[in-house]
Specification:
alpha+beta; two-stranded antiparallel ribbon; 2 domains; 16 strands
């Protein structure tokens, strides 16, 4: 477990302490208005932890504060971990990125594409292009999420039990069977759409490694990185430290406890979701981001070669397109100037993004408003944790980016 004690004076790594203080002032307004229950934030530069802030409550109802070892549902921040797992197997020669998914998961060999009609009476056609592994890693496979409410196929997913959960009794293998039988939004490789694709990547990891995803993570990633607080559910010794999951009240905007959805993290899951199943702490996930900034190595443990990680964090959307022009809408993520690699969003044009950033900066966030980014050009890591669902409730990520970069003064 990584210590979150401040290691250096911010000025030693080109950060202005007074300007960093604006972060706390800004998010204090969120706390004072009741819009956020609490948060943790860290800023690291040049491999040194320069700013750590924790404020508010992990449990408003019981008055329990955010602490260094608070456990968070990181939801889609699981995706980069799963993508790293897959690329570890890629480095071992287990697959090629252009391989059809159906070569390893036969249910994906015969796919159909939505061609019109409605969710009740869809018109389908056979896919002319096989779904390939790079399509899954880049979210160009044609899959979707039921909670998006943007396309008739989203409604088909909801009707099959995929909105904020999975069908009763189905494990990951069974879910893959169901997804393969549902229509694709588009021909693989022709558009970008946020989806269960990384869950399918998790199933590929299982099939290729011969291990369940939780065992692979534990033995190949979490154990070697000493991420002892990260897993697919909160263990008994973590339950008291697990933050409550909140939703915004429709009238007041104040954070209110979610109840049933939050309780899912308190027990072993039926589906090991490589797309959104992990819980973690600030210290643990900071170790993972340090691995990413360090080119796949941390404290003498190497999980990936630096060239592989560089390749993953390039924009893989065809023609150098960004998510805004190549993809379907995902509020707060499909922005101009941001492409997508193999498991990460990638800034391709900071001017088009309209927020300070560096080209080549890579990132992703989770449904409960968590987010991280790694900026190799500035040797910068930023990590923000809270528990407010959904992440599109407030523009926290753009505000955070603006406030961090105004503090860089070297």
């Amino acid at each position: 477990m990584s210590s979150l004690d401040q290691q250096v004076d911010p000025s030693d790594v080109g950060l202005d302490a007074d300007r960093l203080a604006r972060l706390g002032e800004h998010f204090e307004r969120y706390l004072a208005s009741g819009r956020l229950p609490g948060y943790s934030l860290l800023v690291s530069r040049g491999g040194e932890l320069a700013h750590v802030a924790m404020a508010g409550q992990r449990d408003l109802e019981r008055g329990l504060p955010i602490e260094a070892d608070t456990v968070y549902r990181i939801y889609s921040m699981t995706k980069p971990v799963t993508s790293v797992a897959a690329m570890m197997l890629y480095e071992e020669g287990r697959f090629d990125l252009s391989d059809p998914v159906g070569d390893y998961l036969p249910e994906f060999a015969e796919l159909r594409v939505f061609a019109g009609g409605s969710s009740m009476k869809p018109v389908l056609k056979p896919a002319s292009e096989p779904m390939r592994i790079w399509h899954l890693l880049s979210h160009t496979a044609g899959l979707t999420y039921g909670f998006l409410y943007a396309h008739p196929v989203d409604a088909i997913y909801r009707a099959r039990g995929f909105e904020w959960g999975t069908p009763e009794g189905a494990d990951l293998a069974a879910c893959c069977e169901i997804w393969a039988g549902l229509p694709l939004l588009f021909e693989p490789g022709t558009s970008w759409n946020y989806s269960h694709a990384t869950d399918v990547v998790g199933r590929l990891v299982e099939v290729l490694s011969g291990q369940s995803l939780d065992v692979f993570f534990a033995e190949r990633i979490l154990g070697p990185l000493q991420m002892t607080e990260t897993g697919f559910y909160a263990r008994e010794d973590q339950l008291e430290r697990l933050a409550t999951l909140y939703l915004p009240d429709a009238t007041s905007g104040r954070a209110v406890a979610s109840g049933r959805m939050g309780a899912a993290a308190e027990r072993p899951p039926r589906v090991l979701s490589g797309g959104g199943g992990l819980v973690s702490t600030m210290g643990d996930y900071y170790r993972f981001t340090r691995l990413l900034l360090n080119g796949g190595e941390l404290d003498g443990t190497r999980l990936l070669g630096p060239r592989t990680l560089e390749y993953m964090t390039r924009n893989h959307l065809p023609g150098g397109r960004d998510m805004a022009s190549f993809g379907h809408s995902l509020s707060g993520e499909t922005e101009e100037g941001v492409g997508f690699g193999l498991g990460f969003s990638v800034v391709t044009d900071a001017a088009a993004l309209k927020v300070p950033a560096s080209e080549g900066e890579f990132a992703w966030g989770g449904a409960a408003s968590t987010v991280f980014w790694v900026d190799p050009a500035e040797e910068l890591i930023v990590l923000f944790m809270t528990q407010l669902l959904p992440s599109t409730t407030y523009p926290i990520r753009r505000e955070l980016r603006r406030l961090v970069y105004q503090s860089v003064v070297d």
